[in-house]
Design a protein that fits this description.
alpha+beta, 7-stranded antiparallel sheet, 181 residues, 36% helix, globular
């Protein structure tokens, strides 16, 4: 039996550079009773966008979840960090795991040529691969593709750096300390 959508009001917060709304553990249980890890959902803020945005709720480790708010959703709803919003979240039963976007040739050629980065790519979770491929699919210019391919290959090869708004290959606890500043 499908779960009913959640409807609630909340304030948009920010963690690092990532705007989010907190989904309490009791709310998350209404969306999915079994399983662990991210929960695929469709979301609207203040009734926008018209077609609910697909995203995954990300676990916080205490039973609650972050609902990270993509720029697309915030622009459609004309909202930003600090705003109080009406949130509608529903479980996405049509979610399919694995990459949605094909790996672009401009990245795959360079990935195959870098054995260390290639090995790390194969060890990434399907959701992380999907996230990176979705990000690459949104890049418009050749310069942006080259710059992001360089950074992706660097972090996949083991270099400590930021890529896609997160620290890669950092010491345990380092990212937490940076976020709390």
């Amino acid at each position: 039996m499908p779960s009913r959508p959640l409807h609630f009001r909340s304030k948009i917060h920010i963690q690092g550079i990532n705007p989010y709304v907190l989904i309490e553990s009791r709310q998350a249980l209404r969306l999915r009773r079994k399983g662990r890890g991210p929960i695929p959902v469709r979301v609207q803020l203040n009734g926008k966008p018209e077609i609910p945005w697909r995203i995954n709720l990300m676990p916080r480790g205490d039973g609650s979840f972050y609902l990270y708010l993509a720029e697309t959703v915030r622009k459609a709803s004309n909202t930003d960090v600090g705003h109080r919003v009406r949130v509608r979240v529903e479980f996405d039963p049509e979610y399919k795991g694995g990459p949605m976007h094909p790996m672009p040739r401009w990245f795959s050629v360079r990935l195959v040529a870098n054995s260390r980065a290639s090995a790390t790519w194969r060890r990434l979770s399907p959701s992380r691969q999907k996230e990176i491929l979705r990000y690459f699919a949104g890049l418009k210019s050749a310069a942006a593709r080259a710059r992001n391919a360089d950074r992706a290959l660097e972090v996949l090869a083991g270099r400590r750096a930021r890529f896609m708004a997160r620290e890669w290959n950092s010491e345990p606890g380092e990212q937490t300390r940076r976020t709390q500043r």
